[in-house]
Every structure is written in structure tokens, then in C-alpha cells.
Amino acid sequence: MNEHTLKGEWNQVKGSVKQKWADLTDDDLLHIEGSRDKLVGSVQERYGHSKDAAEREVDEWRSEHKY
User: Fold this and answer.
1) Spatial separation of the C-alpha atoms in residues 34 and 3, rounded to whole Å
2) On the CB side of 62, how many CA atoms lie within 13 Å of its CA?
3) How many CB atoms lie within 10 A of CB 47?
4) Using CA atoms, how far apart are residues 17 and 60, in angstroms rounded to an integer?
5) What DSSP line would sit under the chain, residue for residue?
6) Which residues contact 7 (CB under 8 A, 6 or more apart)?
7) Per residue of the chain (67 residues), what is the pLDDT tens digit?
8) For the purposes of burial, counting CB atoms within 10 Å of the CB of 63, is it exposed (0-12), middle (13-18) or buried (19 or more)?
């Protein structure tokens, strides 16, 4: 799934994101708006991961869920 598809289906995907990263707030999800880079940044900030670790985690989640 490409970046545009993730943005287009963001409303459906938000629940899965919230399950995976429960520390993300509703405001975080509103700000992310389906952007992979914004999701990576939010995961990095909330969980204290390095950028590489956050990217890997987000990409694994996207791969698992076909997002």
C-alpha cells in the first residue's frame, strides 16, 4: 500500500493504530492524517524509539495489516 492509500483509508486504519500504539492520543491521530512519516515521528516521540526503530515498527505494522 502506498502513502496515498494509507491517507485515503486513514479513518478505517486509526483503530488498528490505536490498538498497536495505545499511547498515541486522539490529537496525535488527527495530526498524523495517514502520513507514514508523521506516524513514525509520533511513535518515536511517544515511545522514545530511535527513528530507525520507529520506521521499522511502523513498516512491520503496515506489512502485517496490508496498509
Assistant:
1) 8
2) 21
3) 13
4) 12
5) --HHHHHHTHHHHHHHHHHH-TTS-HHHHHHHTT-HHHHHHHHHHHH---HHHHHHHHHHHHHHHT-
6) 33, 34, 35
7) 456 657 778 888 899 999 999 999 999 999 999 899 999 999 999 999 999 999 999 999 999 988 7
8) exposed
